[in-house]
Amino acid sequence: MLTPNRLFFVRLKQHVRYIAKSLRSVLDWTVWLYVLVPLLFIASGLYIELWTRIPAWANDVPWSLMLITAVSFLLLNAKPHIGVEEADQLILLQHKQWLQRVKQLGLVYSVIMAALRLLILYAVLLPYLMIVAELSKAVLLELLLYSICTSLIMLIVNQYLIKEGKWWMRLIRSGVRSIVLAVVWVLPAFGYTVQLWPLHYFIIASAVIAIVLAWRYAVTPLAYARQLRQEQEFRLRLTSVLLSQVHETKSSKRRKRPWIFRKSQRLFKRSDAHYVISELRIKAILRSPSLLQIWGLMIVVGSYAITLVDGVGVWVIVAGLVFIKRSWLHMQWEHWRTEDYLQLYLTEAYAAKKLSQRLLMGPGLAIWTIIALL
């Protein structure tokens, strides 16, 4: 028999299956064997080494402020996952009490996932926080507990102040969210790390506020249409990142021209087919915020990994990073080349791939080489 609890867990199971299916569509066994597994071993080795030897540059970084900034980013983008589908509309509208139950379970699930993300963040920064910033375990536990309480507050605040409406209304709501985040997390956490005030009073106050907001959120009706739109936008963003393509959403259709190369300026003077295709590919990556973030993140993370090793290990890391980046560019190319307008130039595809690969590898390889030589 279908119940609201069973309905929520069925939709949650489908949500997890969708993410797993999307990951399997781009991460086959070759990617796991040649990219992800070696990267996992390298990352774990570097993390273990941090506990015995902290890089010299780490002493000049305010890690407590970095923690506050990273947690602020997570809290500002936290949204409750309820998991409604279009097929649920008839059932949920016939049973009004099911709406609130599904909404309550979605809030509980979202808080658990937010706590897990915070735990991962604290675990990654833990060597720097304890060794460089010299924060004790008690201080970190209080900060973690307070950030979890704040996550519940921000989940509800972000849901009410979702970015909808005209541009000026979205701007006002974003400003209000930032002010709320600064009041409930940034200022108390910063004052606690510099020993201006204790944190346990803020923990009690945030817990009381979180309980009141959670009760208010649980008894109010579910905005079905808005929640369904959020679920659809999440899937579009996930597909955009994994399949290396940009899906336009309702909010982004207002953009008449891309944010870079707005007049389609030429990158090359030559008009050969492989130069044209290479230019189209480079512009496609630069015009995609998700792909550009991944491309830049590879450069930043790779540069950081190089600074943690010495001697021959530096060039081993550089070679591994080049291989990983080439593999990612190859996956992006294999999907992008299926666009309809490229079918006319398939005879020049291999030359275009080689040219665009070299150009896209250039900045990262140059930065990694300079850091390795230094």
Automatic annotation (TrEMBL):
The chain crosses the membrane at residues 26-48, 54-76, 106-131, 143-162, 174-193, 199-219, 291-324. Keywords: Membrane, Transmembrane, Transmembrane helix. GO terms for cellular component: membrane. This is ABC transporter permease. The lineage of its organism: Bacteria, Bacillati, Bacillota, Bacilli, Bacillales.
